[in-house]
Every structure is written in C-alpha cells, then in structure tokens.
Amino acid sequence: MEKEIFKYNSKDLRKIIFCFAVIAIFWILPPIEPITKSGMEVIGIFIGVVLLLSMVDIVWPVFFCFAILPLTGVVTINDVIAGSLGSWIITFVIASFIMTTALNKSGFTSRLTMYYMTRKIAAKSPWIFTFSFYSIAMIIGMFMDQVPATAFFLMFSKEVLDKIGYCKDDKYSHILTMGAVFSVNIGGAMTPISHSLVMLGLGIFQEITGDTINLLTYMMYAVPVGIALFIMLCLTVRFIIKPDVSKFENFDIESLKDKNRKEMGLVEKTTVVIFFGTVIMWILPGFLSLFLPKDNLVLEFLSRFSITFWAVVAVVLFAIIRINDEPILNLKETIENNFQWGVILFISIGVVLGSIVSKPEVGLNDFIIEKLNPVLANTTSVLIIILLAFVTLILTNFASNVTTITVMTTVAVTISMGNNPIDPVAMAITTTMCGSLAFVLPSSFAPIALLHSHEYSNSKLIIFSGVLMIIFSTLLTTFIGYNIISTI
User: Fold this and answer.
1) Would you call the peptide bond into 31 cis, given omega within 30 degrees of 0 as the criterion?
2) What is the distance between the alpha carbons of residues 372 and 34, in angstroms, rounded to a whole number?
3) Which of 3, 116, 183, 310 could bond to 138 as cystine, CB 3.0-4.6 Å?
4) Which has more pLDDT, 292 or 464?
C-alpha cells in the first residue's frame, strides 16, 4: 500500500498562495476614503476569489468565499447564502437548465443543429458558418432573456462542435461558444423587450427628469451600436484570434441530410410547445408594452408574473405530463445524474460577489463618484461621454450590472443636466446600454458565469476578448449611438 502523505502540485500551490496573498494585502492596506476598512476587505476577497475561480477551481473557492465574507462585517453568512444560492437568478438558471435538458433529450436540439448545418450557407465557408451562428444568437438575444438564451446556445454549440469533430481543447470550440454568448449579450442590450436592465435605466431617467425615453428612441441608438459591435466581434475572431478551421475541409455536410428526415414524435412536439410557449410568455409583456399603455389590464396581469414563474411552470409541466406512462422528463434522474452543480455554485458566487462589492458599506460607488466629479468638471464634452461610457463598462464587467446602471445613469443624467452641451437622453441611453454589456468576469452577469464554467470555453480567451469588447463598446456608444440621438 502506498504511503499517504500531504502533497500539493507545486503549480497549483503557487496559484493558491498568490490568490491568498492578494486577499491579505487588501486586508492589511489602510482604506482609501471613502472606501471603508470593511470595503477594502470585501474588494480583496472579490479579486482573490475571482482569481481562484479562474486559475484554480470553480467549486471550493465558493465555499471559501461563504466562510470569509462574513468576517468583513458587511454581510452575515445567511446574507451570503441568501444572495447566492437563495437568489431568484439561481432558481431561474436551474429551471433554464432543466428546460434545455428536456429540449435536448427530446431530440429537437439535434434536429435544429442538423437543419442549421445542412443549409447552403453552411457549405460556403467556415467563417460564414460561424458568423451566421453568432447572428442567430444575437437575434434571439434581442427578444429573449439572456440566461436561458445562453444556456440554449451553449448546448446548441456543443452539438455543432461534436458533429464537425472539434473537441473541448480546440480554439475553434472556444470561439464558437464565446462568440455565441457575447452575441446573446449584445442582442440583449439592443432592445427593451424582456430585458429588465434596459427598463431600469430608462426608469431612472424618468425619475430624475420627469420625462420619458420611448422604446423606439432607445432602439434607434442601441440597434446600430449593437450591429457595429457584432461586426467588431466577428472581425476580432477572424483576424485577431484566428482559430484553426481546417476541420471544416473534411466535414461532409451531405452526410448529415438523411438524419433530418425523421418526423417529430409526440414527446418532441410536446417539449417544443412547452419550451417555446414559455419563451413567448417571457417575451410577451415586453412586446405588448411597445403598443399598449402601462395601465392596460392585459399588460398589468402579465406583468404580475416574472420570467422565473413561467420557467418553474415549464419544469412542472415536463414532470407531470406523461406520454406512454412516462414523464416527458424525469426530474429526479435529471437532477441526480445530468446536473452540473459545480456550475450552479460558480454562478451563485458570481451573483453575490457582484452585489456585495456594490453595497454602500463598501464605499466603492462613492469612491468612483468622488474621483469622477473633479475629472469631469475640467473635461471636454466628448471626453466626458467616453469616460462615463468606459467607467460604466468597467464596473458592469466586474460587479452587479443592476448597481452599475443605477449609479452611472444617475451620475450621467445629473452631469448632463448641468451647464454643458451634453444631451441627457443620449447620455442616459449610453450608460444604460453600456451597463448591459458584460463580457469579462463571472461576477458581471450570469451568462458570462455560465460561459466561464462551460467545458468548451477558455477563461483566458474570454477575458482577452472581453477587454477588447469593452474598448469597442466605449468607442461605438460614444461616436455612433450618442451622435445619432443627440442629432435627432
């Protein structure tokens, strides 16, 4: 029998020590006002845990974070658990996973994959194939909440990659999954339909000014910017990342066509009806709000039910509807054998870290506002717009997008209402859209946490590409979106 000894892989041990050292430094450093002593500790934990999740493991740092955050005094362990595993986002993610599992098990995902891959456009070029895939993700992201759309496209992309012959270590696998999720997030920032972040920013503008920004005005800004940002994503993948697409040369699309002829069975049809019926219920209130007044009875009734409610209803339907005395989806079996609980934990800690670092007790928001004001007071209008857009993008890619939009839209509208030529409507839309564009860290947005934890993705590539997208977003919102609205 081999002798048991305590032993660590030296490379992993160095990473762990480095991450712990980062946390320790922030606990030792004196606070930089208005950041509090507890705030410094929270920021240190935020950075250290994000590094642990990215460099070491996606599970045990979650429990480490549960244990160490209460030591700061900003939150209790019950607060941490309630804000992570107890968050509605986690329930929604779990329900979304179950819905996509049902769709996959029914065979519809494979059918959809075959349909897409056997189109004539797929045979023209690997790049046309890739960017068409991205465009579908962006269009769906425009009308559907980003979390279930991301879960669907991660599953969809895995099916596509398996058919072509790419494995989880290939760079093309990484760019197909990353590009699809980035495209979903771009689409989500382009319209107010089913996107609460956009409505939050527009609501803040109305509270401050008493005026409203209609949804058409928002889309006149956001759609051109989103299309331009999508083009920059495609150019980045094609000319900067440059993955190997040689496996497309030996890929015979004709060999797949016969597999798409099997008719849909009752299980598959029922699954599709439940899944897309749920998607319709997610979209319907936002779509109707484009045409109906807020006090319309139908709109008021539908607005009472959240997207989580409809997702949970779908899960129940999958479990209780039986075909040939078998449920459409065996939930017990699915949760016990097909569920990635490590991913759920990973997402949960990203959610809570993003919200805790934005708490008033930390002082980070006040710090940002205090440092911005004197800079903005002596800066030209164009630089003010660029700076506000850039700061919003940085914040939303590290912390809670809800808090980011709340703080930065308030700051932006207040500044633009002063004695300067900045358009308050254009500025409010700028910070709202920028606050919706998350690409970098798992703490920024649940879809990005899903992407980081997916087996066919690469965190280093996500961060590198995400930083480029921040730069592109800053320039495009300033020089395209802002100018469109301010001119009108």
Assistant:
1) no
2) 13
3) 183
4) 464
Q: Which of 92-96, 250-254, 318-322, 385-389 has the lowest mean pLDDT?
A: 250-254
Question: Which DSSP category does 328 fall into?
Answer: S
Spatial distance between the Cα atoms of 143 and 279, rounded to a whole number of angstroms? 9
Segment 303-348, tens digit of pLDDT? 888 878 998 999 999 999 999 999 999 999 888 887 778 778 877 8
Amino acid letter, residue 310: W
Q: What b/e sequence results for 190-227 when a residue is b if at least 16 CB atoms lie within 10 Å of its CB, and e otherwise?
A: bbbbbbebbbbbbbbbeebbeeebebebbbebbbebbb
Dihedral angle computed from the Cα positions of residues 144, 134, 477 and 204, in that order, rounded to the nearest 10 degrees: 10
For residues 99 and 275, is the Cβ–Cβ distance under 8 A?
Answer: yes
Q: How far is CA 272 from CA 216, 267, 291, in A?
A: 31, 9, 28
Least Cα distance to 409 among 419, 399, 394, 424 occurs for 424
Residues 488 and 220: beta-carbon distance below 8 Å: yes
Q: Which residue has the tokens 């480029």?
A: 468
Phi, psi of 327 (to 5 degrees): -65, 150
Question: Please, are residues 409 and 436 in contact by the beta-carbon 8 Å criterion?
Answer: no
24-40 pLDDT per residue, tens: 999 999 988 888 999 99
Following DSSP, what letter does each residue of 189-230 receive, concatenated?
Answer: HH--TT-HHHHHHHHHHHHHHS----HHHHHHHHHHHHHHHH
pTM, two decimal places: 0.77
Give the mean model confidence (pLDDT) for residues 135-150. 84
Amino acid identity for residue 315 in this structure: V
